[in-house]
Structures are given as C-alpha cells and as structure tokens.
Amino acid sequence: MTASARQFIRAATAKAANPGHRAILENNIATYDTAVALGKTRYASWENARSVAAQIKWNAVNHLGLYLEQFERAVVKNGGRVFWAETAEDARCYIVELAQQRGVHKVVKSKSMVSEEIDLNAAFAAASIESVETDLGEFICQLRGEPPYHIVTPIMHLTKTDVAALFHEKFGTPLTATAKELAGVAREQLRRVFLSADMGVTGANFLVADTGMVALSTNEGNGRLSVSLPRIHVVVAGIEKVIPRLEDLAVLWPVLAQVGTGQTVTSYNTLVGGPRRDGETDGPVEFHVVLLDNGRTRLLADVEQRDALHCIRCGACLNACPVYKNIGGHAYGTTYQGPIGSVITPHLRDACEWSHLSYASSLCGACTGVCPVRIDIHHHLLHNRRNAVQRRFDNPFQRLAFKAWFWAMQDATRYRVASKLARLAMRSGLALPFLKPWTQCRDLPVPPARSFRDWWRREGRDGPPGRPNSSGAARPAGAPYQQHK
Amino acid sequence: MNPARSNILSRIRAALRTETPRPLAPTDALIWPPVGNAEPRFRAEFTAVRGELLDSAQQLREFLKAFPKIATDGSALVRQVAGDGTATSREADIGITGCDCLVAQTGSIIVSTRASGGRALSVLPPVHLVIARRDQIVPDLAAAFTLLRQRYDGHWPSALSLVTGPSRTADIEKVLVMGAHGPKRLALYFAD
Fold it and tell me: CATH fold of A64-294, please?
C-alpha cells in the first residue's frame, strides 16, 4: 500500500466516524440541492443543455491544438503574452520570476484551483512576495493554513462559529458576529489589499479561442477587482479550458452556475481580452496567460478517459457523491477532490501512488448522473481500477485471492468443495481474523448451515419454499436467515 | 525559445491521432422556455436577483441624495441624466455608468470598458447605478453575443462583464450575504 493510500484510509476513517462533520456537510449540501432543484425548473430541457455543453467541450478537447493556437494568436494580437508550461514547476517559475522582475511586492489572487495545483502561494512566499487570497472562502482557508475543502465551496467543513472564532483571533471581531458581519470584515481587510496590490493572479473558467479572451466567473466581485486594480494581470489555466467561440458561453455560463450553485448565472461573468487598450482609463498594463499541461496531455492520450478533460470544475459530482459526503475534501489529499479528482489525479500525478482513490466509490453513478458535460465518471473509476491491476499496482494478496476464486469457479466440484470450506470457516469463526478489514465496521451475516445446492437437491425440487413438501420442513417464505454479529 | 510550446503541441497532435466517440448529440428541443415579452421579463429577473429599479426621475433624485461623492463615466446618456461626477472611482460613494445591453432571460447588465467608463468604476464603489434605455434590452444571452459581435468584432474592449445583481457570497454555511467585494447595491434607471 502506498503512503498516500495509508494516509487516505486513516483520514477517511476518522472523518466518516465523526457525526458532527457529516452534519455540517449534510446541511451545506442540502441547501445546495434545494437551490439546484429550483434552478432546474427554469429549463425546458436540462438534458439538452447538458448535451450542448458536452458537445462544445468534446469539440474543443478533440481539436485542442487548433484552438490553443488560435487562442494564442488572438491574445498576442490583443497585446498579451502567452507562456506554455509543461509542468507545475515551469508555471510557478514563470509567474514568480515575472513578479520579481517587475518589482511586485503584493499579489491578489482570485479563486483558482490551478493555482492550488501548482502550489503558487508557497512559491510566492519563498520569494518573499505577499500573496493574498480574495475569495472569502479561500481567504479563510489561507488564514487557517489549509487547502480548500471543495472545488467550489472552499470552507464547506466550517460552521459560522468556526469562522467567527478565527476572525476573533485574527481581527478581534466578536465571537457572536453574523455571517454578514464576518463578510464585512473580510471586505474591509481585503479592500486595502486590492488597492495596494501590484499583480492580480486569476484562473480561468474558459479560454475563448476566437477572441482571445479569458472568462472568469465570481459571485463576490473579487475576480473583477483582481483584473481592474493591479498593474499586471496573470492568468493561469489548464490547456483543457479552451472553448471555440464566444457564443458558446451563452450555454456554458448558465450551465456552470446551475450545477455550481443553482444560480441562473453567476453574479459576475467577466471576459478579459488583454491589457488596457489605447484610450482606456484603467486596467493592467500587462496581461500574461500561462497555459499549463502538467499531465493533461497524458489524459488526452488516454482515449477511453479523454472526456475527463471536459470538466468545468463545477463541483456537482462532489456534492452528489456518498463517499465525499462522508469523508469530506481533505481526506483525498489531492487538489481536486471527489469523483472527478479520483479519476484525474492518477493521470495528473503518479498513477501508482493515487490509484487507491478509484476504489473509494460505491459505483452508484450519481456523479455521472449530475455531470453537466456528460463525463462518464464512474466508469472511469473502473477503468482506473483495471489499469492499476494491469500495471500490477494492486495488492498481491488480493491478486492471489482472485486467482484462487477464478480457479474454483471453473469446475463444479472445485466450487462445491471451496464453498463448503468457506461456509465452515465462516460459521466456526476461523475465517474472522482474515475478514477483519470488512468486519471491523460492518456486520457479517453468518451463512446458513446448508447451502442452497444441498437444500435444492433434497427438498427444493418438490415445490417452492413455504409450501409443505415431502419432508414438511421447508423454511417459510420470507423468513430471514438468522443474523449474527 | 521555450521548447514547451512545441512539446505540448506535438503531444496533443500525437494523442489526437486516435478519435473518441462523440457524446450524445443535442436535439432540437429548446433548452429554455421562450423569453416572452422582453421588458417585463427583464424587470422581473432583475428584481429577483436583488437589483433595484428606479422608475421615475423623482425616485432617481431621492436615490442619489444618499451619495455625496459621485463618479460617472462621462458618457452622453449619463451626463444628461446625472450630470458629471467629481469623485474618482476609489473615493466615490456611487459609480454611475452606461452599459452595452440588458439581458431579459437572466436580468443581467453587460458593462464594458468602452460603454461603462473603464474597469473599476462599475465594481469598486459600494453602489453601482446604471443608466440605460429600454431599447437596450435583448431577449437572451445568444442575442447579447450577436449584438456585441456586431458592435465590437475586430476591436473588442479589453474587458466586459455580465453583471447579474449586486456582489454576493454564500461561503459561510451557505448563508447569502450581499456585498462581498463588489457593489452592495445595484440600481437601474431607464432614461427613456
């Protein structure tokens, strides 16, 4: 078992056994579910909206090189610069060196999962450059020194009381402060930072190829302030974010908001197409776009799972996932949590180290059912499991057990003997030590003394259970087998 | 020259030699019900996202009394209705701007660096007032993009925003709070 897998099991076990934590997530996700259900009533055909969104992303991803080059040409024509980064390291270095060369002391960041992926804040800190998260949830994460809990809802795991305690400690606000008062404190604190920052770093929800624009959605307005006030604007985005045409946003903007929060559209959907133009009165004088690969071309080459690059990071699959609802976001140990994170992390990072996440699923398919761009998420979890076995990343004992099972299933006599032995071992308790990983948190029903085969041979043939048969001793219909702890 | 560009593009080319099946094709079914009469629809949607409609010159005057420091975009329509502001966007109590168009489907206002006096004026002051004409209402987002492309194709403003209600956050326990970083209030006055 890899170190990440051990850490995952430890963290997941602790969180799943914490009812208080589960209640916080349940409350948060219940509010989300209500808003999403209400939002869906605005659609005549939500299914068709998904189909259109999936088609746009399929087209973009399957002509990725074409659209990226078109995007690059348009950005350069608009007076911006494009930097291609193969790795997280390349992206970090470019951004930090740019900041150093331009004498940047303070950076404001608008919420960006890619900046988490490349660990940009740590790189700024190492270069003694102050970088401040401005999304309220991310700001709170940064104050607590922890990564976001959820792609869209960074502090899903915290109550208002937790935030009030944090703000009391950091800013001296009363412990009884309301959500409105706490947001007001953050506004005041961050307003000063916005007005004095030299550089704004944002992610991108979409990169529009035909006009060379970066589309950015925020509810708080921190995205707009980050691209308005500092003198340099840096965008860091995965290469899969490109879409062909501006008009595609007429569907993608509402669809993203619908599954992200249940809103009709996000409060602010902003398009930034370069630095300030001649004749414009404000805005950054420099505009840089960092296009990040960092394993995405590996995922592109996996034909079976290529559609995972359709992902628009809406967070819907996390909210739908019974595993996420029990273990929360930090247990995964990844930048992208939940089902989509379990699918893509083995591709973006190391397949051997991160394949265990694909087993943390009941394969219920709820993730696939809610995905707005029709990614076949739960089948990709199966694909990852198969790949792990083929590449021998799995547990050798498990491999041996499956070999034994395969051998036993091939012959009637072997099957009969093996099942008899298994029944004996389970009824006598001899097998229990080996089954501990299962039984320590679940009941194991004790198998009946007699197998169905035996029963059928002696009595079943004479009639269905419940009717008197030759021996008159059939189990009544519907009567349960005895349950043992 | 950074070799990353050609490395990434050649990996993409190699990967795309194998095609993937297309997803379920869209049908002719309408995604949204028809917008209907654009102006009442806009008013309903704009109010639903907590926008404030100022319905008369009297209401506008009353509204503006609360804000001593005014910043404006200097456009003809704004000057005609609200005069010239004297404050900068950093110190203003209210930013007054024009817009590119209004979207009935979502109750949104599209602002841009060209139609709304730059980037900060419509987002930095605590209140944003938009002066528009009724004929600026378009039915839906698709129509808005058509209009923008006709107006700007080839020489786009450096930034545009689809603004739908005032700034908000629900990060703390999903409790909705208005006025996170952007304007706490968003108002609209029709000049015609």
Answer: Rossmann fold (3.40.50)
Provide the number of structural domains found in chain B.
1
Domain assignment present for B20: no
Mutation target vs A (from B161, B176, B184; most A CBs, 10 A cutoff): B161
Best probe of the A interface among B1, B8, B72, B75, by most A CBs < 10 A, is B8
The two tokens of residue A293 are: 């690969």
**Is B129 a member of any domain?**
yes
Q: Give a yes or no: residue B140 inside a domain.
A: yes
Q: Please give the Cα distance from A218 to B149 (Å, whole number).
A: 24
ipTM exceeds 0.95: yes
Burial of B129 (0-12, 13-18, 19+ CB in 10 A): buried
Query: Which residues in chain B have their CB less than 8 angstroms from residue A307's CB?
Result: 20, 23
Q: Which of A61, A74, A50 is nearest to A241 (CA)?
A: A61
Residue whose C-alpha is closest to residue B142's, from B34, B18, B15: B34
* Per-residue pLDDT tens digits for B26-35: 999 999 999 9
Residue A271 and residue B164: Cα distance in Å, rounded? 14
pTM: 0.93
Domain boundaries, chain A: 1-41+314-394, 64-294, 396-447
Residue of B nearest to A59 (CA): B22
Closest CA to A384 of A358, A366, A364, A362: A358
Residue A270: list chain B partners with CB under 8 A. 159-162
A455 and chain B in contact, CB less than 8 A: no
CA B88-B93-B97 angle, to 5 degrees, is 65
% pLDDT > 90, chain B? 95
CATH of the domain at B93: 3.40.50.10420
Question: Rounded to a whole number, what is the largest CA-CA distance in chain A?
Answer: 99
Query: Is A301 at the interface with chain B, CB within 8 A?
Result: yes
User: For residue A362, is pLDDT > 60?
Assistant: yes
Domain, as residue range, for B155: 35-190
Looking at residue A323, its amino acid is V
Which tokens is A219 given? 């509810």
Counting beta carbons within 10 angstroms of the beta carbon of residue B18, is it exposed (0 to 12), middle (13 to 18) or buried (19 or more)? Answer: exposed
Q: What is the average pLDDT across A457-484?
A: 55
Q: Establish if B5 belongs to a structural domain.
A: no
Q: Quick check: B1 contacting A, CB < 8 Å? A: no
Give CA–CA dist A186/A409, Å, rounded. 63
End-to-end CA distance of chain A: 29
Query: Is B62 buried (19+), middle (13-18) or exposed (0-12) by CB count in 10 A?
Result: exposed
Cα–Cα distance for residue pair A218/A203, rounded to 1 Å: 11
List, for residues A55-104, the tens digit of each pLDDT value.
999 999 999 999 999 999 999 999 999 999 999 999 999 999 999 999 99
pLDDT tier for residue A465 given thresholds of 50, 70 and 90: low
Mean pLDDT to the nearest integer, B136-143: 98
Distance (Å, whole) CA A485 – CA A341: 36
CA distances, A163 to each of A140, A149, A175, A181, A209 (Å): 8, 14, 9, 11, 40
Name which of B23, B33, B120 is nearest A374 (Cβ-Cβ).
B23
